[in-house]
Every structure is written in C-alpha cells, then in structure tokens.
Amino acid sequence: MQIEFFGAAQTVTGSQHLLTIGEYSILLDCGLFQGKRSESRALNRKLHWDAASIDAVILSHAHIDHSGNLPSLVKHGFKGNIYSTPATRDLCAVMLMDSAMIQMKDAEHLLKHRGEHIEPLYDVDDVANTLELFHPIPYRKSFSPVPGVYATFYDAGHLLGSAAVVIEWEEQDQKKSLLFTGDIGRENRPILQDPDTIGDVDFIISESTYGGRLHEIEQDLERKLLSIIHEVIEQQGKLLIPAFSVGRTQELIWYLNNLYNRGLLPAIDVFVDSPLAIRATDVFRMHPECFDSQTRTMLYADEDVFTFPGISYVRDANESKRINTYKKPVIIIAGSGMCESGRILHHLAHSIEKESTSILFLGYNAPHTLGRKILDGDKEVRIFGNYFTVRATVHELPGLSGHADHAGIIQYLSDRTISSVKEVFLVHGEFKAQELLATSLKEAGFHSVSIPEQGKVITI
Predict the structure, then answer these.
(1) Which CA distances in Å does 81 have to 54, 73, 146, 172, 195?
(2) Residue 31 in contact with residue 63, Cβ under 8 Å?
(3) Which residue intervals of the chain bear CATH 3.60.15.10?
(4) pTM above the 0.85 mark?
(5) The three-state (H, E, C) secondary structure of 218-256, written as one string
(6) Peptide bond before 336: cis, by omega within 30 degrees of 0?
C-alpha cells in the first residue's frame, strides 16, 4: 500500500489522504481547506488527483473540512461509491447543499459589489449528483470498497455519525491493517456515545488537533459558561457565540437545556440563528441510535433535549436582522464557528465595537480566520470589507471541543497492543501540536511516529 498525504498534512483543514493498493485507489475524506481565503480558494479549486481514477471514497464524518470538496470530485469525474455511516450521509445532505448555496451567493456578491467573477467550486446540482453516490454502512459491519480490501466503521464519538475506519488487506499472504481515526471524540461527552475501542492494527493515521493542550473538566465548563451569561445580563449586553452549525451548536444547546432543567440557567432569550443548524438539529433527532445512554434516559423526562423555554430557532433573514435591535440581554448562537461566513458576521459587524458585547468561542479556529484573529487579540478586524475596532470581551471555552485533547489522543491510540503498531502518522494538526504529541507517543512506547508534509508519499 501507498499513502499520499495531501489535505490536513501539517495543518488542520482539508482532510484528504489517498490509499493505493495494487491497481485500486481509495480516498480517505475529501474536505475543503479553510483559512486564508486566497490560498484556500486556490487549493480547493485544483484537485490534487484525477477524480475519475479514484475507485472509492471512505468518509469519516460530515464536517466540511472532511466532506466539503466531494461535489468537486464528482463534478470532475468521480463515479465510484462514497462510503459513510447513515447519519453522516444525512448530515452531508444538508451541509453540502448549504456549502453550495454559500458559494453561489458569495459569487453573486463579489460580482455585484466588486465586479469580480468567481466561479463557485460546485453548485446544488453537483451536490445532488454527489448524494446519489453515497453508500451508507452501519457501525461495526464489514464492507469491501474495492476488491481484496475490507473496511469497518467504528464510532469515533466526535460528531453524529462520525467514524474511525479500519482497513484490511493482504500482501504476500500476510494480513495488514490500517486505522484512520478521522477526528477522535471525547469520553463522557453529552449526546454521543464514547469512541469505540478498536483492537490491534499495524498502522495508524491519527488526527492531532489538540496536541499539547488539555480540556477543562465539565464542572469548570458549566461554571464558566454560567459566569459569562450572568456577566452579560449584568451589562445588559449580547453574548455572541460563533458555533459550528453541526455538532457544536447541538452540544451547547444540550448544556443550556440541562442547566435549565436543573434550575441553574438565568432568564435570558437564546436565539439559534442558523438555518443549517436548524436542519442539522432535525437530523440529530432522526438518529437516536447514535445517542449515549445519558441522553436516551433524558428523553424519558424531556422528549426534546434541543428545546427549552426561552430558546428560538431563527430561519428568516429579516428575523435575524431584528435580533440586533433587541434591547434586552440575549444569547445569539450563529454559524460559522471560525467566523468565515454565515450570520455571525452580521452580528459581529453590529456589536463587536460595543463594550457590553461578549464573544464566546467554543473550539478550534484555524490560522488566518476571522475567529482566530479575534481570539489572538487583534484590536481591529475586517468584516464585509470594512474595519471594526474590537471592544467586545472575548472568551474561550475549549472544553466544548468535540476533539480529544492531548491526553485523550494518547489514551485512544494506546488502547491496544502498542508493540503491534509499526508506525503512527500524525495529520490534522498544526506542526507544533504534532511535535508535542509525537514526543508523548514515543514516550508511551510507540516505536515510530512521523509527521508527513503535504504531498508526501509513503509505502507501507
């Protein structure tokens, strides 16, 4: 087998790794690069491989940095099966269509206001053609993406439907196996089940997003969240929460609902201002088989864990604009999580210069994104082509991240016979984080840990 690392190599976005086994090729993920817009646009527009030559795609989960360039692959000639879990397919149905709509609207905006003609990467027809190629496979059921190769999805506990995949094949009468972790989730998180335990494997391609970092414990997370909300109420201000519409938003709502049920949430209006988040929440409701026992038990007393008094789901754009005229304290949850698109930009433009505003980030922000600039303390940021002075108070709750932290990754990778692992390849992380994680993995007993750069081809 050969592995070519392209996306998410010494960076966090654009997950794409090509496996070549004999005459067949399998693409692991096909994500969009996110970050500096000019660079991302160029990387996303030029496919690294001949789409028609790829025999199959195995998709770990629905997040756009893992699935978002699938329609481009199909547009350029890919005709094979796209293998995913059923929940991942259903989430992709809403997320990829949303991605196409955003690109089409951005192209219209640039043409109208700047005279720039930019062709969208793909449109809604390309998404429809892509969805026809999905082949959903349940967890823990073996399937054969190409002749002579077998694969199995295991619950990764990161997002509804997220999976780690074990790929097995034979070379010279020897069985070999590769684990692709996708994004590793965390134990004891709300809604989703813990990551599955997976047995011995020969090779591992592992994410490393939170290498060198540890998450807060849940009690500290709740205490900090409540402290921020009380502060916003005292200041009669707004709490803006840029949140990924799929996964992070639902988890935050779960926490707020749980706090309400325990009588701890103060009276404050909450707006979920994201059509994508609303559609994604509907998909969550369709897949209780992915829920953990705690959430399933909660459903006996609370039939909808994504609704509580005071919360409103905002679909209409005019209703979204009216939120900015609100005179009472309010929580606004809106996409996108890295502030690169979506309705959060309008709320930031309206309120980022007010000292009564608080901004709460819930997870990782890639370099060069607006969210990263705000988190890094930039005093002036550009939104819709105009510059705004940042007077809002900025908070971060990395404990709500759906990724395992440094210790969690080590525990997940070590939950097998370490001596059976011939090599670990670290992807989906910034280089410094990967170096820290690599050092710890070697100390834990892993014989060989490498950090492949973009375009690296390795024979195993």
Answers:
(1) 10, 12, 10, 27, 25
(2) yes
(3) 2-213+402-459
(4) yes
(5) HHHHHHHHHHHHHHHHHHCCEEEEECCCCCHHHHHHHHH
(6) yes
Q: Give the Cα separation of 429 and 213 in Å (integer).
A: 12
Average pLDDT (389-394) is 98
Query: Please, are residues 412 and 405 in contact by the beta-carbon 8 Å criterion?
Result: no
Quote the tokens at residue 154: 């295991």
Distance CA 286, CA 91 (A): 11
| Edge-to-edge strand list for the sheet holding 56-58 | 134-136, 81-84, 56-58, 24-28, 16-21, 2-7, 457-459
Output phi, psi for 332, to 5 deg.
-120, 115
Q: How far is CA 440 from CA 12, 407, 421, 443, in A?
A: 20, 9, 15, 5
CATH class label, 218-400: alpha beta
Amino acid sitting at position 450: S
Whole-Å CA distances, 311 to 256, 289, 305: 9, 25, 12
Has residue 228 got a pLDDT over 90? yes
Residue span(s) of the chain under CATH 3.40.50.10890 come to: 218-400
List alpha helices for 353-405, DSSP H. 370-375
Report which of 339, 95, 366 is spatially closest to residue 240, judged by C-alpha positions.
Answer: 339
CA dist 3 and 458 (Å) reads 5
How far is it, in rounded angstroms, from Cα 386 to Cα 364? Answer: 25
Cα-based distances in Å from 1 to 171, 174, 421: 9, 13, 16
CATH classification of 2-213+402-459 is 3.60.15.10, yes or no? yes
Amino acid at 153: F
Q: What is the pLDDT of residues 132-165, one digit of tens each?
A: 999 999 999 999 999 999 999 999 999 999 999 9
Facing residues of 396 across strands? Answer: 361
> What phi and psi values does residue 371 have, to the nearest 5 degrees?
-60, -40
Q: Which of 52, 44, 48, 57 is nearest to 78 (CA)?
A: 52
> What pLDDT was estimated at residue 116?
80
Contact 192, 246 (CB under 8 A): no
Task: Give the mean pLDDT of 183-196.
Answer: 94
Q: How high is the pLDDT of residue 43?
A: 83
Per DSSP (E only), the strands in 373-450 are 380-383, 386-389, 393-396, 423-427, 449-450
